[in-house]
Design brief:
The complex is a heterodimer of chains A (395) and B (136). By secondary structure, chain A is an alpha/beta fold. Chain A has 15 helices and 13 strands. Chain A has two domains: 241 residues, Aspartate Aminotransferase, domain 2 (3-Layer(aba) Sandwich); 137 residues, Aspartate Aminotransferase, domain 1, CATH 3.90.1150. Helices cover 43% and strands 14% of the residues of chain A. In chain A, the strands form three sheets. In chain A, strands 2-8-7-6-5-3-4 form a seven-stranded mixed beta sheet, sandwiched between helices. In chain A, α4 links the parallel β3 and β4. In chain A, α1 runs antiparallel to α8, α2 packs parallel to α8 and α9 runs parallel beside α14. The longest helix of chain A has 22 residues. The relative contact order of chain A is 0.15. Chain B contains six helices and three strands; from the N terminus they run αβββααααα. A three-stranded antiparallel beta sheet of chain B has the order 1-2-3. Classes of the chains: A alpha/beta (395), B alpha+beta (136). At the A-B interface, α10, α13 and α15 of A face α1, β2, β3 and α2 of B.
Chain lengths: 395, 136
C-alpha cells in the first residue's frame, strides 16, 4: 500500500541533496575539528562555512551568533537555563506562554525548583498571546520572555516582532522557539528583533540530531554541557560535523525554495480544510484561520476520539498525529488545546495533519475520503453521538 | 503497540449497537478521560442472550468492549460476573501498560448492566414496580 505521510510538523525526510553533501563527513573528512592537523582543519572549515551560511540565511549580524546544538530541545534548554543562570543577579522572573513546546515548559518548571518564578501567559481561542499581556506581566525582576514563533500543534503564528518591541522597551531579553517556522515561513532576525532563537534541522528536511541557537552578540549565557571549548565554550562535545553541514544545506534549500513551497502548501492546506468542513459535520478547526503555518491542519471531530481516528488512518496507509491523551502518554489531552478553551472531550477528538513538500492533491482527496468514512464509522459506535442525535431529535 | 487481536476487534468490532428493550444498561468511564463504554444486555433464564455495546474511546477501549461481548454472550449471569477487566485484556493478548486503567473498563460496564438488571428484576418479583426498564 502506498503510504501517505502527513506528520511533517513532527519530522521531515532528509532531502537527498542534503544527504549527499553530508556523506563525505562520515568517511573522508572524519577528523576531529579541534585537531590542528589537516584532517581536523577540514572539519573545522566545514563547520565555519556552515555557521556563516546559517548566519547569513537568518539575517544574523555576525556568524559567531550561531551556536550548534544537538536538537531544538537542547537549543531551548540552553536559551532559557542559560539566560536564567547567567542573569540570576538581576532577577528571577521568566515569562512564557501556556502553549509552549515541552522543551520550554519543562525547562521553566525545572527552574521553578531552584527559586525562579514563571508566568505562563494564557492564549485566546486561536492560540494567540496578547502583546499587552506580555507588557503587563513584566516586573523589575523579569529577566527573560520566551514565546514560540509558531505552535507545533495548531500552527498559530505569534506576533513576535510586535512583542519583541515591548520586551525590549522594558530592557528584558527575548527568546523565541522558532523550530516550526525556520525554513517554513519568511523569517529575518532583524525584523523579529529577538535576542535568542531556537531551530532544528529535521523540521526543514535536514538531518535529526542537530539544531542551533541564535544568540545575539552581548547576550550573557551559562553553558549546559561542560567540557571542551567547542561552540564558544557554550556547548562542549566534538561537533556533529556531518549534521551541521546538513543543517546548513537544508536551510539553504528551504529558504531558496520557500516562496514556491509555501504558496503551494497554503493552497493545499486551505483546500483540505474546506473539503473536511464541507464533507463532515461537527468538525472544528483548531488554531487561527489565516495566521497559521502553511502545512498545518488541526481539527476536532466531535463525539469521536483521536487515537481511534489515527488507527483507521494508519490502516489505510496514512500517518498523522493527535492531541488526544491516548497518544500523549498522559491522562490529559493536549495542553495547547485545553489552553485554547476546548473541552476535554473535544480535545480528545483532535488530529493534526501536517502537509509537506511531497504531498499531492490526489493524496489529500483520498485522506479526506478515509476521514469521512472513518469518522462516520466511529460515530456509529459512539454513545456521545447517539445521545446528541437523540437530543437534537427531541428539540 | 497493539496486538493483532486488538486491531482485529478495532477494525471489525462485534456486537456494536444498542438493545431498545434491554434488561440492563451499564456505563463506565467519562468523556474527560476520553473513554465511555455503554453495555446493553438482554437476559433470559439468568442467561445473557444478547449483548451490544457503544463506545467512545481509543483503539483499546473499542477492542475491549468488542471482545467482552463475545466472551459473555450465552453465559449465565453468575459466569459473566466473574469476568474481570484483566481477563478481557488477557483475551486480547495484552494491552500497553498505560491503557490498562483508562481504556480497560468494559467489564465494569457489564457488571453495572447486570446490577441494573438485578435491581429491576428484584423490584419486579416483589411486585412493587411495573416497569422493568433499567435505563436511567
Amino acid at each position: 500500500m502506498e503510504r501517505i505521510y502527513l506528520d511533517h510538523a513532527a519530522t521531515t525526510p532528509t532531502d537527498p541533496r542534503v544527504v549527499e553533501v553530508m556523506l563525505p563527513y562520515f568517511t573522508e573528512v572524519f577528523g576531529n575539528p579541534s585537531g590542528i592537523y589537516q584532517e581536523g582543519r577540514a572539519g573545522k572549515k566545514a563547520i565555519d562555512e556552515s555557521r556563516e551560511k546559517v548566519a547569513r540565511l537568518l539575517g544574523a549580524a555576525d556568524f559567531r551568533e550561531i551556536i550548534f546544538t544537538g536538537s531544538g530541545s537542547e537549543a531551548d534548554n540552553l536559551a532559557i537555563s542559560g539566560v536564567a543562570w547567567a542573569n540570576r543577579g538581576k532577577g528571577n522572573h521568566i515569562i512564557t506562554s501556556s502553549i509552549e513546546h515541552h522543551a520550554v515548559l519543562n525547562t521553566c518548571k525545572h527552574l521553578e525548583k531552584y527559586g525562579f518564578t514563571v508566568t505562563y501567559l494564557p492564549v485566546d481561542k486561536y492560540g494567540m498571546v496578547a502583546p499587552e499581556a506580555v507588557r503587563e506581566a513584566i516586573t523589575d525582576r523579569t529577566i527573560l520572555v520566551s514565546l514560540m514563533h509558531a505552535n507545533n500543534e495548531v500552527g498559530t503564528v505569534q506576533p513576535i516582532a510586535e512583542i519583541s518591541k515591548i520586551v525590549h522597551e522594558k530592557g528584558v531579553l527575548f527568546h523565541t522557539d522558532a523550530v516550526q517556522t525556520v525554513g517554513s515561513i519568511p523569517l529575518h532576525l532583524k525584523e523579529l528583533g529577538v535576542d535568542l532563537l531556537s531551530l532544528s534541522a529535521h523540521k526543514f528536511y535536514g538531518p535529526k540530531g542537530v539544531g542551533a541557537l541564535y544568540v545575539k552578540k552581548g547576550t550573557r549565557l551559562s553553558r549546559l554541557i561542560h567540557g571542551g571549548a567547542q561552540e564558544r565554550q557554550l556547548r562542549a562535545g566534538t561537533e556533529n560535523v556531518a549534521g551541521i553541514v546538513g543543517l546548513a544545506k537544508a536551510l539553504e534549500l528551504a529558504i531558496t525554495e520557500l516562496e514556491e513551497n509555501n504558496s503551494r502548501l497554503v493552497e493545499f492546506r486551505d483546500y483540505f480544510i474546506n473539503e473536511l468542513m464541507s464533507r463532515i459535520d461537527r468538525v472544528k478547526l483548531n488554531g487561527h484561520p489565516t495566521k497559521r503555518l502553511p502545512g498545518n491542519v488541526n481539527v476536532s471531530f466531535e463525539f469521536v476520539e483521536g487515537e481511534s481516528i489515527l488507527l483507521i488512518l494508519d490502516l489505510k496507509g496514512i500517518a498523522a498525529s493527535s492531541g488526544s491523551a491516548c497518544t500523549s502518554g498522559s491522562l490529559d489531552p493536549s495542553h495547547v488545546l485545553l489552553a485554547m478553551g476546548l473541552s476535554h472531550e473535544v480535545a480528545h477528538g483532535s488530529i493534526r495533519l501536517s502537509i509537506g513538500r511531497e504531498n499531492t492533491k490526489t493524496q489529500l482527496d483520498y485522506v479526506c475520503g478515509v476521514l469521512e468514512e472513518g469518522v462516520a464509522r466511529l460515530r456509529e459506535m459512539s454513545p456521545l453521538y447517539q445521545a446528541r442525535a437523540r437530543k437534537e431529535r427531541s428539540v | 503497540m497493539y496486538t493483532e487481536a486488538v486491531m482485529d476487534h478495532f477494525s471489525n468490532p462485534r456486537n456494536v449497537g444498542e438493545i431498545k428493550d434491554a434488561d440492563g444498561v451499564g456505563e463506565a468511564g467519562n468523556p474527560v478521560c476520553g473513554d465511555i463504554m455503554r453495555i446493553y444486555v438482554k437476559i433470559e433464564d439468568q442467561r445473557i442472550v444478547d449483548i451490544k455495546f457503544k463506545t467512545f474511546g481509543c483503539g483499546a477501549a473499542i477492542a475491549t468492549s468488542s471482545i467482552l461481548t463475545e466472551m459473555v454472550k450465552g453465559k449465565t449471569i453468575a459466569e459473566a460476573e466473574k469476568v474481570t477487566n484483566r481477563a478481557v485484556a488477557e483475551a486480547l493478548g495484552g494491552l500497553p501498560p498505560h491503557k490498562m486503567h483508562c481504556s480497560n473498563l468494559a467489564a465494569d460496564a457489564l457488571h453495572k448492566a447486570l446490577d441494573a438488571y438485578r435491581q429491576s428484576h428484584l423490584q419486579f418479583t416483589a411486585g412493587e414496580a411495573d416497569s422493568s426498564s433499567a435505563i436511567g
